[in-house]
Specification:
Elements lengths: L13 H9 L6 H13 L2 H11 L3 H6 L2 H20 L4 H4 L4 H11 L7 H6 L14 H11 L2 H16 L5 H27 L2 H8 L6 E3 L2 E3 L9 H13 L2 H10 L5 H10 L5 H9 L3 H7 L3 H29 L16 H17 L5 H12 L1
Antiparallel strand pairs: 1-2
Length: about 375
């Protein structure tokens, strides 16, 4: 089963993604290119005029395919975020866009504004690439996210298999190592950002374009990197029952910006034991005896430890970037565009490390310690 819209189309597939990138249902190529100059001059009237010119009529929207709905939301979103970056709320300036946003969101079963998927994965590359600034650093940032999504998509389906697999099954370690391979792309992506995007550019040049706007009375976040759902991998592997209230709240706030299939996965993994918990419970209070009875347990634990190490490496590098970009002397905003603070990122790393320790020598006392941490 894959991510599907209300029209039964997998908008996250590589074929659909390629089709969406090619589409320009609003004939917005020229205006999207000119948007960079408007932003450089902080020309709000020009941005408002362009957005007003792009808003399609109801008959046009009714004729759109699901892919065209995504492409239209992508291009309208670039102007919504640009106007907000320069101060005013965009909706009161172009109120006729509201029913269009609501309909595009309904047709694709997503929130009624653009998300990180629109800004990166569904964004054309090359000369048609939609960018707020046109700076090469913005292009690197978009590419770093674009390269991750296909691997996350595969990884989430592997996590779904793991959530139902017996932890002593020899296939469990194989599936986990395959998931780890996909997660290693996250490390490569963050390395690309470190090498090519300065904290100053993000903090002072780009961050402001991802601010929230209000649509039909609903406050909606911009296309934040926090919407890249590594947190959903966490939910399946350990966070469903090893998390902390702050992280749980962040997950609940982030879920609406996901693809429909990924929201299904979150719902399915919430309220059931995580993979790590099932491993700990299977080892019980006699790990040696459990390993003798179930020789697949130790390879499963070691595979989970490898997976968590890769995630910790990624999160550590992400924390390093965030510390610089949100340093008090540099930042324009106190928290990330997805609502996460540097303190929360640090807490997530600590939780992941603590969970990784459970895979080293799982036992009933370790499970008791986990429950004690949650109640605290």
């Amino acid at each position: 089963m894959n991510s599907t819209s209300t029209l039964g189309i997998d908008l996250g597939s590589s074929l659909r993604t390629a089709a969406i990138r090619e589409l320009d249902p609003l004939a917005a190529d020229r205006l999207c290119f000119e948007l960079r100059s408007h932003n450089e001059r902080a020309d709000v009237p020009a941005l408002v005029s362009a957005l007003r010119d792009l808003v399609p009529g109801p008959d046009a929207v009714a004729a759109y395919s699901a892919e065209a709905c995504v492409a239209a939301m992508r291009d309208l979103g670039m102007f919504l975020g640009s106007i907000k970056r320069h101060g005013p709320e965009p909706i009161p300036l172009v109120p006729e866009v509201v029913p269009v946003l609501l309909e595009l969101g309904r047709r694709t079963d997503m929130v009624p504004r653009d998300t990180v998927h629109h800004y990166t994965t569904w964004n054309p590359t090359g000369g048609r690439q939609r960018m707020y600034t046109g700076d090469i650093q913005e292009a690197y940032l978009q590419e770093s996210v674009r390269m991750v999504f296909p691997h996350l998509r595969e990884g989430l389906e592997l996590a779904e298999q793991l959530s139902h697999a017996d932890v002593d099954d020899p296939k469990f370690a194989v599936l986990t190592d395959e998931l780890t391979t996909h997660m290693e792309t996250m490390v490569s992506s963050i390395d690309m950002v470190v090498a090519n995007v300065s904290p100053e550019f993000f903090a002072r040049g780009l961050r402001a374009y991802f601010e929230e706007i209000t649509v039909d009375g609903r406050v909606l976040l911009g296309p934040a990197a926090a919407q890249v759902p590594l947190w959903l991998i966490d939910q399946a592997i350990w966070a469903a029952d090893n998390s902390a209230p702050e992280y749980e709240e962040f997950l609940r706030d982030s879920v609406p910006y996901s693809l429909p299939r990924w929201r299904e996965l979150y719902d399915g993994w919430t309220g059931i034991p995580s993979v790590v918990t099932r491993l700990v419970d299977t080892f019980g209070d006699d790990p040696d005896g459990a390993e003798r009875r179930m020789p697949g347990l130790r390879p499963s634990a070691e595979a989970l430890a490898r997976l968590l190490r890769v995630i910790i490496v990624f999160r550590g590098r992400h924390l390093g970037i965030a510390r610089k970009a949100y340093d008090a002397d540099l930042r324009l905003y106190p928290v990330g565009s997805g609502g996460a603070s540097v303190d929360l990122l640090r807490q997530i790393i600590d939780l992941t490390r603590a969970t990784s320790q459970l895979t080293q020598r799982p036992s009933a006392p370790a499970a008791a310690g986990r429950a004690e941490r949650r109640s605290a």
